[in-house]
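Q: Sequence in, structure out?
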Amino acid sequence: MSRPFVFCTLMALMLVPAAAAFALAPDAPSKEAWGETNDGRSIERYTLTNAAGAEVDVITWGAIITRIVVPDRTGKKDDVVLGFDTLAGYLGQHPYFGAVVGRYGNRIAKGRFTLDGKTYTLATNNGPNSLHGGIKGFDKQVWQARPLASADGQAIELTYVSKDGEEGYPGTLKTKVTYTLTPSSVLRIQYEATTDKDTVLNITNHSYFNLAGQAHGDILKHDLQLDADRFTPVDATLIPTGEIKPVAGTPFDFRTPHAIGARINADDEQIKFGGGYDHNFVLNGQMGTLRRAARVVEPSTGRVLEVFTTEPGVQFYTGNFLDGTVKGKGGRAYPKRSAFCLETQHFPDSPNHPEFPSTVLKAGDTYKSTTEFRFTTDKAR
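A: Exactly. Output:
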């Protein structure tokens, strides 16, 4: 090889933009074995990190987020999601800590819906209703994982194929969930799915947050703002009535920030039905565009969580059914209202409410949805 050719090659490499070089050789998330399922299948844990000190752990059982570590305003780092230290906790009964839930996140009334003239029957695992995909939904499946080359930060792709008829749903559904942790501590979740038969689909992540740190008391002093002028009232079994009601003049008005606990025990029928907040809020703005759904500030630590999504709704849940019987990380109990969830979604029971945004995925079409959890700190206090 001639010297001029070598020189030109070296110069060309030196001139490759930094972003392009990063895209070609990204820093990969770490991977470790994390036990086996009861039938002997191996489970892996991946850890995404960034230079800002954030860390996110994801396991291949249920595509579950087991840990999110972010700093407070002083730089002190804490894990801000509920969960377990070992796989055994996730294999047992728990309230969907950190899981991807589907095929249909949230509730379907009486476990039935009609599609293309045919009625489908689902398991009723939440009183008279079907919840979060049934007895063995996406949260109780082994997903296949691979790290991704991404210029946006460390990333992992998880895939699962749900067979035609699984949990009563039609169509073989191929689902992909991608987690990316950006340098600015944005945890981006991208969902994608295709089906060979018309089906219904509503996928979300069910992480339980406490921005003071998991097992650090209740979340009643967290300040919440929801970018939602309306919500969907429910009946006593938490199924939407079909009404879309303004939040103005109700305990559901979070259009300006205030403490979660300020009106959580209000003398209000909807609050009583949920035992607190367990309701779908109709987000402002155009469905399908990435826009803000919520902003939460924990005053003592200054941690801030903003949620952005392309979904039309978000289920705000205040851990009303936690009762201290579940022992989580470090053996600590998780009592009532020790965490909140912001589950970005289409509306509950949409297959039975044609007036709601449709959750039908047609054969040959591709479902796509994006949600971002953006972590920062409030330096004002």
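The two ends are 64 Å apart (CA to CA).
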